[in-house]
Amino acid sequence: MKTMTCKQLGGACDKEFHANSFEEMATQSKQHAMEMFQKGDKAHMNAMTEMQGLMQSPADMKTWMDNRRNEFNSLPDHI
């Protein structure tokens, strides 16, 4: 199991996510982002706007995702 924060995954806070795979981590992050969006959290909404900008370029988005996946893979496992 590995740990990453919301900020490490493009978000706006230090909430930690714990997962065995990058895909699971991304799902948790997305769910958290939607919760923060529903609460109207300005910092998370700004982070989502930045992510939407990245999504305009498939190549940029792929690079960003590859970098996050590589960061996840380089993290030590913990229990």
| Proportion of strand residues | 5-15%
Net shape: globular
Helical/strand content category: mainly alpha
- Give the count of helical stretches: 3
The total domain count is 1
Order of helices and strands: EEHHH
Report helical residue fraction: 55-70%
* Global mean pLDDT: 94
For the biggest β-sheet, the strand order reads 1-2
Poorly predicted segments: none
Largest β sheet strand count, sense and barrel closure: 2 strands, antiparallel
Number of strands: 2
Radius of gyration: 13 Å
The rounded distance between the terminal residues' Cα atoms is: 6 Å
Describe this structure in words.
This protein has a two-stranded antiparallel sheet. It is globular. The model has no long low-confidence stretch (mean pLDDT 94). By secondary structure, the chain is mainly alpha-helical. It has one domain (2-68, 70-74). It has three helices and two strands; from the N terminus they run ββααα. Helix content is 62%, strand content 10%.
